[in-house]
């Protein structure tokens, strides 16, 4: 895959890879990972689309300097600029976890108008699962803003997010999921700049149930696919089932025997569903 860079007007850099020809389809990865989350399904999608895989800011090879606000509005603005320059008008867009939250916010804020929108497992309008674990992560991450703790906590991140944790997020225990986490955290230890940036993001990221989305779903007047896993402990299927009736052109598809890392559990099924909806 070819590596390219998008430079936002405020100086933020977004690294992205692309493969294939045809209508553009961008896939936004989940929090803490990178474009590699989609690698198992890319070749099958590239037969039909120009597949574009950005690393979100704070991830992979993209921007990680602490001079940016890292609010949801800022992420949406960067994504809007990226889509306009790299994808063109009315792209096909899909997102997972934090990538889906940013994408949904960007669409509702009018920064992007996709031809087709795919939302894979994310919290949507409900309270996040495992709130105690998320609160502990947020407190630890915010502590990186304290001088001296940034470097210490950057080393602690790899100790927490081990390859074994990646394996646990695959419903089929795909051993390649361990390599995904190993790659995602390879350059984190000792990166104090990244730790301070994550501290800003953790403070700014919305917490709790985003119930305002229940009133905003009807504004999504483009075809929307809720593509869910049936064994994702972080994002239960019930949230998608609640959102579906509020989407004017909504569809729900469930990949059986898949967990958080859907592309590692069923790359063929994932590519099939994306192609059927976006093709």
Biggest sheet, open or closed, and with what strands and sense? 8 strands, mixed
Q: Order of helices and strands, N to C?
A: EEEHEHEHEHHHHHHEHEHH
Helix content: 40-55%
Number of helices: 12
Structural class, please? alpha/beta
**Percent of residues in beta strands:** 15-25%
Rg (C-alpha, Å): 18 Å
The average pLDDT is 92
Choose one word for the global shape: globular
Describe this structure in words.
This protein is an alpha/beta fold and 279 residues long. Helices cover 41% and strands 15% of the residues. It has helices at 39-46, 72-87, 98-108, 131-142, 149-160, 163-168, 176-184, 192-204, 213-216, 237-243, 262-265, 267-278; strands spanning 2-7, 13-19, 24-28, 50-54, 92-95, 116-119, 224-229, 250-255. Helix 1 (39-46) packs across helix 12 and helix 4 crosses helix 8. The two termini are 21 Å apart. The mean pLDDT is 92.
Task: Write out key terms for the chains shown.
single chain, 279 residues, 8-stranded mixed sheet, globular
């Amino acid at each position: 895959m070819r590596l390219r860079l998008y430079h936002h007007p405020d100086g933020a850099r977004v690294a992205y890879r692309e493969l294939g020809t045809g209508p553009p389809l961008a896939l936004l990865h989940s929090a803490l990972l990178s474009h590699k989350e989609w690698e198992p399904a890319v070749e099958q999608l590239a037969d039909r689309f120009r597949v574009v895989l950005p690393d979100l800011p704070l991830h992979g090879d993209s921007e990680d300097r602490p001079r940016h606000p890292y609010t949801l509005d800022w992420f949406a603005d960067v994504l809007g600029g990226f889509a306009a320059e790299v994808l063109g008008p009315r792209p096909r867009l899909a997102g997972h976890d934090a990538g889906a939250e940013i994408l949904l916010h960007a669409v509702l804020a009018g920064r992007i108008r996709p031809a087709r929108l795919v939302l894979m497992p994310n919290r949507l309008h409900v309270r996040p699962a495992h709130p105690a674990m998320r609160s502990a992560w947020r407190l630890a991450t915010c502590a990186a803003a304290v001088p001296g703790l940034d470097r210490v906590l950057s080393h602690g991140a790899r100790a927490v997010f081990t390859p074994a944790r990646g394996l646990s997020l695959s419903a089929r225990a795909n051993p390649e999921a361990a390599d995904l986490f190993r790659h995602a955290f390879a350059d984190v230890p000792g990166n104090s700049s990244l730790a301070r940036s994550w501290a800003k993001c953790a403070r700014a990221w919305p917490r709790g149930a985003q119930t305002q989305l229940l009133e905003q779903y009807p504004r999504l007047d483009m075809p929307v696919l809720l593509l869910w896993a049936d064994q994702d402990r972080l994002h239960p299927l019930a949230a998608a089932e609640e959102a579906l009736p509020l989407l004017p052109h909504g569809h729900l598809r469930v990949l059986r025997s898949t967990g958080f890392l859907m592309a590692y559990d069923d790359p063929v099924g994932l590519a099939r569903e994306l192609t059927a909806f976006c093709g």
